[in-house]
Write a structure and sequence with these properties.
Blueprint: H1 4-18, E1 23-25, E2 43-48, H2 53-56, H3 59-66, E3 72-77, H4 87-100, E4 106-108, H5 124-137, E5 142-146, H6 150-153, H7 155-171, E6 185-189, H8 194-197, H9 203-231, E7 251-253, H10 256-267, H11 275-283, E8 289-295
Parallel strand pairs: 2-3, 2-5, 3-4, 5-6
Antiparallel strand pairs: 1-7, 6-8, 7-8
Length: 301
């Protein structure tokens, strides 16, 4: 009979082993509609609300995308985080943090209607207006930002997806009738339940298990389709190849080296190192794992 101590040692070994290498799934945010070619991302804009958001919430994404030669990543932070009068300090801290993360294309704004405020939401039209310039300047095809829950329920975080959606609607008022140029797409960082938010190291093996299980199911699906195509060659349209990653949930899992880099980036925000930040970087899954959901705009006939 296997002892409980042996099971414990095995479990610890599996968790620690899972931290050795990073993993991503659908890192190019591929989507594919029936009988159409897959769409992937090349010029990505990460939109944050405050300095330190990039290190606390998006580091796994930034580090993974920065390692991909085919992707150009830009970051726009919509405020200086001046709630406590430290905006001038936090601008410098953000610059240092992004340099640690390898990002050189960044902008930080100080708009009178987009000020750091724990109790006030930002106007979607204002967000759309200020983002429009950067989407054009950087030739952006994909926006990444918080979802409507904002991870930490901060109202400034929660305002961002509505602003990005308003921008896309202004650029593509009739997406169903648009042809040619790729539509601007929006993916939001998925907010998890409170217990999952603080799973720390356990988030890595659990997420990797999900990714591997999904890939196994994909292989099984392709096997079934190949068998069907053998017997009924006219049943399936194989003229347009299917992207193997298309429509899988975009997920980025850091290894221990990337986690260390994320901590180093957060250390650049010296003004924000209060006691609960230590607990956050130690236990938050967002220091290790980012998963995204596409925001699909309604298509008018």
């Amino acid at each position: 009979m296997v002892s409980s101590s042996a099971i414990f040692v095995l479990a610890v070994a599996l968790v620690l082993g899972s931290l050795y290498t990073p993993l991503d799934s659908n890192a190019l945010f591929a989507t594919q509609k029936p009988l159409q070619h897959a769409v992937t991302s090349n010029n990505i804009l990460l939109v944050t609300a405050h300095p330190d958001d990039e290190a606390l919430f998006f580091a796994p994404t930034i580090l993974a995308l920065q390692s991909m030669p085919s992707v150009a990543l830009s970051v726009v932070c919509l405020s200086t985080g001046n709630a406590e009068g430290l905006g001038h300090v936090r601008k410098l801290e953000l610059d240092r943090s992004l340099r640690v993360l390898g990002v050189d294309k960044m902008r930080i704004l100080d708009h009178p209607e987009l000020q750091d405020n724990q109790t006030a939401s930002w106007d979607a039209a204002v967000i759309a207006s200020v983002l429009k310039r950067y989407v054009a300047d950087f030739k952006i095809d994909t926006i990444l930002t918080f979802d409507s829950s904002g991870i930490s329920s901060h109202p400034n975080h929660q305002s961002l997806p509505a602003g990005a959606t308003a921008l896309i609607q202004s650029l593509h008022p009739n997406p169903g009738q648009t042809s040619g140029a790729q539509l601007l797409r929006l993916f939001t960082l998925q907010t998890t339940s409170l217990p999952l938010k603080y799973t720390s190291l356990l988030a890595v093996p659990l997420t990797k298990l999900d990714v591997y299980a999904f890939r196994l199911m994909q292989r099984f699906e392709r096997l079934i389709l190949s068998i069907v195509a053998t017997w009924y060659p006219n049943l399936l349209d194989l003229t347009i190849p299917r992207n193997p990653e298309a429509n899988a949930q975009p997920t980025f899992v850091s290894g221990y080296e990337a986690y260390g880099t994320a901590i180093e980036a957060m250390r650049a925000h010296e003004s924000q190192w209060v006691w609960f930040r230590y607990l956050y970087v130690a236990f938050s899954r967002y220091m290790w794992v980012n998963s995204y959901v596409e925001v699909r705009l309604p298509v008018e006939a």
